[in-house]
Amino acid sequence: MVKAFGDFEFDDRRKDLKVGGNSVRLTGQALDLLCLLLQRPGELLTREEIHRTLWPSTNVDFEHSLDVVVSRLRTVLDDRNPNPRYIQTLPRKGYRFIEPVLVRPDQQASSLVSRWTRRVVIYVAVAILAAIAAILFARTRYDKFVPSQRRAPVAAHNR
Q1: How many Å apart are CA 17 and CA 11, to the nearest integer?
Q2: Phi, psi (rounded to 5 degrees) for 74
Q3: Which of 12, 133, 139, 156 is most buried (most C-beta within 10 Å)?
C-alpha cells in the first residue's frame, strides 16, 4: 500500500519514502518509527509501546535514543517548527501522527493482479474452446463408426 501525507508518499512494501517523486533517504529506527506512526495515524503511540516495538530486547538509553530518532525523522519530514505538521509530541506520554493519511493500493501490485486475471481468463476460454472442438470431433467419429439404430420401414406382412 502507498500512504500519502502532505507532500510525501510512503510505500509500505518497499519501505520507500518519496517527496515529489524522489526517494528520501530514511533508514533504521527512523524508518521503523515512521512505519509505526503511519499504521495508526491520529492515535497516541506511547513511549513504552515504541520502546517495545523498536528496542524490544536492548538496554540502550531508550529515552535519549527515542528523542534522537524522532528528531531525525522530523528533519527528514521538514517538521522542526514549533507547530508541527506531522508528528505531535505529548510530553512524557508519546507521539501522534497528526497529518491526514490517504491509503491507496500499490499501482504495481494492482497491475500484476490485472495481468494475472487476464491470463486466467484467456486460458479458461482456450480450454473451453478445445473441449467443444474435442466433443464435436468425437461426435463425428462416433456417427461414422457406430451404425445408426434406426428402424427400417416395416413391410406389410399380411397380403
Answers
A1: 7
A2: -65, -35
A3: 12
| 156 part of a folded domain | no
The predicted-structure confidence for 132-150, as pLDDT tens digits, reads as follows 988 888 887 776 776 666 6
Its pTM stands at: 0.64
Task: Please state, in angstroms and as integers, the Cα–Cα distance from residue 157 to each residue in 23, 152, 154, following that order.
Answer: 99, 14, 8
Q: How many residues does the chain have?
A: 159
Q: What is the CATH number of the domain that holds 75?
A: 1.10.10.10
Residues 11, 104: Cα–Cα separation, whole Å: 10
Domain membership flag for residue 152: no
Cα 70 from Cα 91, distance rounded (Å): 13
DSSP for residue 26: -
Domain extent for 34: 2-104
**Over 70: is that where the pLDDT of 152 sits?**
no
